[in-house]
Amino acid sequence: MRLDIRKLLVISAMAVVGAAATPLTRNAKLTTMDAGGDLDRQVRKVVATPATPHWMGWVVPAVEGSGTSCCFSDLGDLGNDNGCCWGCKLEGGNSVIISSGDVVQSRDGKIINLEGSGGYSILLRAASGKINRIRAFSEGCALDAGGLGLTWLENVAQADSLRLLEKLALDPDAVDDDGDRLGESAVMAIAMHADPQADPILARLAGPGHDEDMREQAIFWMGDARGRAGYETLRRIVKDDPDEEFREKAVFALTQSELPEASDFVMSIARGQAIPDLQGKAIEVLGLEENARTASLLREVYTSTTDRPIKRSIMQAYMTSDDTAGLVHVLSTEKDPELRRDAIELLGAQEATDDLVRLYRSESDARNREQILRALGVAEGADELAAVVRAETDPRLRRAAIQSLGIIDGHQSGSLLEHIYATETDREVRSEVLQSFMVQDNSRALIAIARREKDPGLKRKAVEMLSHMEDTAALEFLGEILEQ
Asked: How far apart are alpha carbons 378 and 332 in whole angstroms?
């Protein structure tokens, strides 16, 4: 769990990073400049000076629990003996940001310690007289400026940094080269500041009337990085914001918080105790978590409610969290036929073949057994379906199993269908196999049957199935028939 940011700030309340070390760089024309107590003026000075694109940056103390942020320059470097990565390319946009681990090794063998530096590098790119990009990385992360200039500003006050970033977030003319606003990247940079003044700024940026994408980023980072202050703001948004869809997104943001109170609040919503109109959303986001506490809550709510949509939301959450046991529990207790069939379908999506086979053996309702066979098809349970074809005495269920085999692509299901066709005596079952070959686009099997089959009706059926296919082999075979 993340620690309470306000308690931590008591012992780390530096407002300014004094004379911070310049960053480890490559391909950069590095210069340093003292912010001189007026960051906005110095940034405007840098923006107005260069004729070519130019980067500038500074360091601020990082909020506790912000983790680390650096880059893999190339995913192919992951297994290299000479280190995973060098750092972050400011130009090009091809780097992949990572947010875990504390040490990386550069290609030149240097160890870059990301953990413990306590700072975040805030970077702005200037071009054509305006800021057109904002990035933020852990202080120890090396920077590749792509041959451009990099002005490093020292003695930057956090309050000045926050003020500038908020202004950029709110400026509709602050856009990147694609015309997208810089608000989202500004919000992330704001959230990384240790200064508690970042919290009311994020609250303002999340307010009604602002850019929707920026608002969503603001609430995400409130939950992910801003501890108790972020939780309290999200709680107010969930209760009071006039936009219901935005309130739903705030419920998700609460799940990003490490505070126990945030989890408790989402669970109270899921129980229908706090905000009834968001109960379904709370259940949905809890489905993204895989832990015993959430599983227990979902069972509790399912057992206590008679609301069909809520029960369906819980079943969907079981599927999302890969909680097969939850769906099996539904099937062992639920009497509603439609909900039982929904649970069977979701077991198929989970590829829970063993549970579906056990359910098939114990199920007495023929319609539900057909649903189980369809679910086995979705789960790609080819062997299990073939076993049903061999053992089942009900012709309708045997045909349903063959239909499900037909929706499974691959050599295995095709071979099983060929074996069934060769050994089967029931003409209707064999006809169903031909239909499944067509569904699979298995022209090879159909052509072989059309050439050797002695039963005129089945031979015609094989040719008919081929006529529905645009496969080259099928068309050539049909051409042979026409020439005879």
From this structure: 22
